[in-house]
User: Fold this.
Amino acid sequence: MRNNLHIVRQATASTLILIVLLSLIGAVGCKFDDPEALQKAKEKFSVREFTTYDCDVRTARGRRASGRHKIFLVKENMSRTDLLSMARLLHKAYPDTSFDFFDDESQVSEYAEWSVQNGCSGDLFRGSPLKSYIYKHRVAEVTVQNDVNRNKKWFLVYDDRSKREEL
Assistant:
């Protein structure tokens, strides 16, 4: 009986150590949302969050990837400087989330539905019945790409595809 009690104590101590280690590893490797950055973006740029959804996509190499996606409504005719500043603030608020920025909300709900049904890939929208709406009102997107070393890099991509800026 005494041996069994010793084994239980040892197992309990080992379990506690493991839990503490996993907690520390999780805390160090975790990115936290920054609510102050979100508030700054809302105040400075009058940006409004429209919806959030999760995506499940296949990468170009056939790998499965998933992620969170948000759609924001922005003022019409925002300058690129303001778009970039706003995107950086929102990226601080939601560091592991992709975004679309629209300047008109008339068909954003349909866009979100289409996006989820078609793998959340911007390239698929070429065949969308919302094509003209998307080209006219989606101002930019924040998207992640891996570099040659498989490090994630986040970019603001303007919808005319003329330029992308690292966040």
